[in-house]
Design a protein that fits this description.
homotetramer; Chorismate synthase, AroC fold
Chain lengths: 357, 357, 357, 357
């Protein structure tokens, strides 16, 4: 996997596409045969990610309509690869002309040029967050397999700037989708929305966090050494644009704790009284809810002037243009969920080869 | 890589071994030929990880002497796989007899049994932290390749319980190795050591954090989509026993920041004024120091009695026995460094195939 | 790579698509950046494979026009994945209605049903040879990289039925393309063409062989154990539809030879007097021409009535319909070459990480 | 898998070791848990491969005793990696002193030097056939899993020089092991043995072929595109030292056949009247016996003087020394079987993830 465009071991997604070509797309290989897919649900997840969906996200307009080219017959999976494309619509390449020579601060422009010795300046190439639409397609399919096993997700915004959700818990989709921020607590969501609007008025951006809980994951998924379940979920999260950190269960707070407080004592049925482990012990799911939290930095594109350099090292002034998000976490919710779903399904399939019987 | 005992893409480590068999070991494949390896340096790193090295770590005695079986000729790498074994010495299997039926809280005993349908109760099987000795061997070799390129590591303890190191920076090995805790600030290290001794007297354990800085990494390493450089480092860290979280550069603090504060502005030479990006932008190294921080939970084995269950769900009392660490971070330092070195070298080799010239 | 739709290690092709969906296509990952691709040459290779190209191949009409969606900018590779699609045009699905219930002898219908528990009866699903068009796209790109290094291919038909080409050698493309059979000897080609026409008149089919020589491959490509250069080429060839055997250098004839006759003695410059090794010794190229030969069985679809069974085991008569090839080898030539080119380029890139310097 | 020391996708063998280090060995990952392994059977297979076993093979003496280091507990697999070593005993490195500067004709010496820029001249490094002992260990384990499913192997010599076995069929192990050549027909075996003895008296070597039949393989194993079952078996065979060709079912003879003769017509139960397909259709097993044949060149080391070159291109005379096989096929039988068993088990495990139920 030397070039890094493939994710997964058995259920595998390979993607292609830049934000400013004619289309992006992907191939999902290793999809088990004979399972009925609801394509509307796939589009529903894409709509949760797409630009222009609400007043607090970027106003770029793209319908993000996925077209499936193979792997489905009479509404069911055939076991062969699912190929799909999502045409690019609202490219506005001229929006990027002012970037032809400039490296945008805290974007991938400079590092990308160092890597490839060349760069398509229109929109960040493969570093564009547009690529995550393909992940949402594959994740929405993975989620349907998992739902048929009773596995359910609750993924939501739990922090925007300094505003944090108190008492995280398993919230239903209706609560999460009841507001533009995708924070399931109404008052907190309102405060977050105000903050995002204020920040945008300033031409600035702000960071945030997304939390994910997954219930009914069977015990036994994950491997004990390198491919620990949370190691793969962690990689999945850190591979999403703008993510700076990830923590499981007690997370960074565990560094301050004593073992006698941190240990999750057992009930007779194998469940535990507490869940500091975040549903994973020794890299293997234990049947308790899987819980993790993901930190996103503020979007790098701001509408304030910044001094930067061009490709020959000259100082230039950069005035942010284009239509960007003031805060990325509301649109990141379906991406976090998609990546988590792919990992869980992959390990579920891997587990089928573990015990001889 | 369905069974998860292999790490890396080009420079690849595959490991085997339980803490209570006759030996653990591994195979490193993809080692470039014609490079002189200093085997004493490899043993030095193993000694930094080994039990019994100081008064504040577990008093189990194992010399952890690595034996190389292949891949080296006249002191140089041949380009063929390096096979190695580390014999197990101080097994004390009877220490574990009381565990035959009990699931230890917050260990992998229960989840392991759910996965494999069977379990070697002596010491945790593959979930034992002993397995990390193999990672240290491979990492110590990777580090020598990197050092020949001028790449240097500074890895140290920056938190034990509530005690945190102020002003993290690039510290030299001498400062880090000057005390038992491996915290480069003398006064902070003393306070940490006291805390660890106190906690141990209580029969309890405590968590902590390790910080790693890597300088002189060339710009251009990492891939822009799934295999982002920090995504692979993150997976590497989360695959280490007891790790609950990882963050890069500004990390979780970035969630509270504005873009105008967070963006790393460029100097004329492509370096940046600040390093909130932690040396990685869009998944690709930018030439600035790579910086990350790893959270470890308190060790699950405590010497206080705990109620738990056995494999048929009956309540049993567990009295911790054996010789365990009260705090794992001093011994985790070389493991964190080893895993980071393997990732950096792997991406360095991957990069050799990226540009056609 | 559990589901088998990906080929290669660094230069990697992943494909999707059935013969009767809307399109087939693929993603090529690991393409080095900054290389100028001639897209007309890619289409030229597709035209050599396409149906309807001459009087002696199937008369199905498909233009097989490839559309590139990503990975190219201003005519050069960007280092990011090349996504492409080839629309399906002449599907005639009703041609296959008579097959809905019948398993065609020596096709994949029965084994496919056993594997997936379901089957798209229209044209063989993924088992359709149409999928090889995607290989030709990727191989045509690989070949351009290799040609820039001076590596050249000579791939041609050297047997149809009992008619064999005498004196195989390195023939130029002009000689190979001078006739419909792609056999570089004019008289032999005429006899082969007559045989194919006769067989077709009978409603029957006939097998054949393709030979490939590759010159100027640098010494040192390939690995000494599992991934021997000829092992990967062999897998590549056996993965092409209808292939039943592959041999390198002296091949099956070597079983009758003595070592004193078979050994390739060295000239002073490291070249050898003979080339029984086929350019590969111990799995590693030695700088001599790589030579191998591939056997294709007769096409399974014949226009004579055959007794067969349906999916519930009842005997049914099958009357071959549709437009099929009487002999597959003329169209197989560009596929053999494409697969070989992908393997050579992949090992060329792998070799870049082998020696430390 | 860039460095090529790993074989398999789920059931995976990684090997290390040169013929003249202290040991060779390997790690088998992905072994399903809870299966009882008969270790004597593993040693039995190693004994069939070992040097010195009979009067017609090399008289080097090595006991080839395998030591298992992990992955087994109370005689059963634990699901974790099986690590093993085979100490090297009879190294006689001084036998190779005369080779320090000379490239042996048709060995890997020259190509190996070109690849790695360095070479351990003692016995061929990783190119030594000694490495295949590790394959036999893993294959013997795979075979036990398969036997528990009713799958059986019949692997034997069917050609030495110009002497061929007539009427190949499924022969029992007793018949195969009844003579030193491992050819199940007594008279043919005698003629083969005479030929091998004559060739050896001449200081020469001779080639041969091994045939393998596998019965009771369930239908449905293999993938329809790149990872066809016979493509993986073919790669496995071509990765064995000295193999120059492989053919399945009708093989190279199919090139002369008509489709109407070649097609395997169905019986009502899905079996076929003939088995030109060799048990595999469209890359997927169809439940009929899997049949293939492997060609081995004559051993390159002969005891006659040969002119060759040294590493600076000077002509030198090489007088073969050491203790080598005059014909490799009797000892190749267990290697062919081991590699085939690994492939079949790997695909059996892969198939477990194919259908959703």
């Amino acid at each position: 996997m030397a070039a890094g465009s493939t994710f997964g071991t058995i259920f595998k997604l390979t993607t292609f596409g830049e934000s400013h070509g004619s289309a992006i797309g992907g191939i999902i290989d290793g999809v088990p045969s004979n399972f009925k897919i609801d394509l509307d649900k796939v589009q529903f997840e894409l709509d949760r990610r797409k630009p222009g969906q609400s007043a607090i996200v970027t106003q770029r307009k793209e319908s993000d309509t996925v077209q499936f080219l193979s792997g489905l017959f009479n509404g069911k999976t055939t076991g062969t690869p699912i190929g799909f494309v999502i045409p690019n619509e609202d490219q506005h390449s001229s929006d990027y002309d002012h970037l032809k020579e400039a490296y945008r601060p805290s974007h991938a422009d400079y590092s990308y040029d160092q890597k490839y010795g060349t760069r398509d300046h229109r929109g960040g190439g493969r570093s564009s967050a547009r690529e995550t639409a393909c992940r949402v397609v594959a994740g929405a399919i993975a989620k349907q397999f998992l739902e048929s096993l009773g596995i359910e997700f609750s993924t939501y915004v739990d922090q925007v700037g300094h505003i944090k959700l108190q008492d995280p818990s398993f919230f239903l989709t209706d609560a999460i989708e009841s507001n533009l921020v995708r924070c399931p607590d109404e008052l907190t969501a309102e405060r977050m929305e105000h903050l995002i609007r204020d920040v945008r008025k300033d031409g600035d951006t702000v960071g945030g966090c997304v939390r994910c809980m997954i219930v009914n994951v069977p015990a036994g998924l994950g491997d004990p050494v390198f491919d620990k379940l949370h190691a793969e979920i962690g990689k999945a999260m850190l591979s999403i644009n703008a993510v700076k950190g990830v923590e499981f269960g007690s997370g960074f707070a565990s560094a301050e704790m004593r073992g006698s407080d941190h240990n999750d004592l057992f009930n007779s049925d194998g469940s535990t009284l507490t869940n500091n482990s975040g549903g994973i012990q020794g890299g293997i799911s234990n049947g308790m809810p899987i819980e993790f939290r993901v930190a996103f930095k503020p979007v790098a594109t701001i509408l304030k002037p910044q001094e930067t350099i061009n490709s020959i090292g000259e100082k230039v002034e950069l005035l942010g243009k284009g239509r960007h998000d003031a805060c990325v976490v509301p649109r990141a919710v379906p991406i976090v969920e998609a990546m988590a779903a792919m990992v869980i399904l992959d390990f579920y399939l891997r587990q089928k080869t573990t015990v001889w019987e």
